[in-house]
Amino acid sequence: MSSKTSEFPMSSSELNHPGTPYLQASYFRRLNWIDWLYAVALCAGVAFAFHRYADYMDVYEKAILVLSAPTFAWLGWHWKPVRWVMALLAVLSLYGIHLYDGQLARAEQVFFLKYFLSSQSAILWMSALFGFATLFYWIGLAARAESGYSIASKFCWAGVVLGFTGMLVRWYESYLVGVDVGHIPISNLYEVFILFCLITALFYLYYEQRYATRALGPFVMLIVSAAVGFLLWYMVTRDAHQIQPLVPALQSWWMKIHVPANFIGYGTFALAAMVGCAYLLKQKGILANRLPSLELLDDVMYKSIAVGFAFFTIATILGALWAAEAWGGYWSWDPKETWALIVWLNYAAWLHMRLMKGLRGVVSAWWAVVGLLVTTFAFLGVNMFLSGLHSYGEL
């Protein structure tokens, strides 16, 4: 995206006040007919969703649906691939819903559902595609082969599309299990691991295009593949893919905004840690001529942590509000809450040292890597070794 703010001359006062009507007008003037067509299509999709599914939504869900149109319009205007991803998700998920014809049993009877579009099939495809993407990213790095990188990137995009399709179809499937069972699929460890994989991969793909380098793919996709490995183990050993009713504490609209915000934080923190690994290798002269510059790696680390910290802060505030509604208090020093605070303090300190003290280099990279260990324990370790009010996430 060009750094040029306008093709028209501006006065110094206008430059000093980027919120002026002039700049706002020039921003919209730069949009072409495809941009507006995309926005209109999103509004039409929201209208269709209201017409078809309004009876299943409360007032908060309707508000989220309305706000999704301008949010995704803005994303699509600033990052063009969002457009075709949204279009593919609409086509695939609606076709999958159509094939069900209101009967969950058709998941085993209809070919395209059984092998491609049921939630479980789509998520298995996502897992395989992310695995192939990781393999080809490493082939591209080892052989300096742009063709390997290109194939890997396509696999990664395909995995994102199939993963989100699986999540959307799973949302519909939960209502086929029972109207009182239906819920957004971000309620248990199985579902949030899928969300983690998708968010991490999607943020990586953004940075891949933003910085015009695919050399970070081998590192970032390693953490995604590790999450996929855990997901498959968890599915096989615990039958975790089965849709279960929500426990009372999760029967709240807060879940729909708290959990995604939380996992944007987790995903970007993980991405920063893997970029930190690449930084440390390059600094030691390992793969030095295959990796981007140290300055670029440092910038990706910083921006990933900054984005993650912002969303993690929002998620923590939302979690406190949710806790007050569910348990009668904003904070109870539950193990999950305590470790979330530790994660927040860790990255707050990282950003403070970066912005106030100019922290750079090896120390910054090691801190990002160690931060992943802290985040992993808060995300997974608490569920494995500790108990508390968040017991619905236990292994």
Task: Give a concise summary.
It contains 14 helices and no strands. It is mainly alpha-helical. This is C-type cytochrome biogenesis protein CcsB.
Could you tell me the number of beta strands?
0
Largest sheet: none
Mean pLDDT: 88
Rg over CA atoms: 22 Å
Helix run count: 14
Number of domains as seen in the coordinates: 3
Helix content: over 70%
Protein name: C-type cytochrome biogenesis protein CcsB
Detailed description of the structure:
With 395 residues, the protein is mostly helical. It has 3 domains: 32-78; 92-246, no CATH class; 262-395, no CATH class. The chain has 14 helices and no strands. The chain has helices at residues 12-15, 21-29, 33-53, 59-78, 81-100, 111-117, 119-143, 146-177, 189-210, 217-238, 255-283, 294-327, 335-357, 361-385. Helix 8 packs antiparallel against helix 9 and helix 11 crosses helix 14 (361-385). The longest helix is centred in the C-terminal third of the chain and has 34 residues, at 294-327. The protein is globular, with a radius of gyration of 22 Å. Mean pLDDT is 88; it is low at 1-20. This is C-type cytochrome biogenesis protein CcsB. It comes from Imbroritus primus.
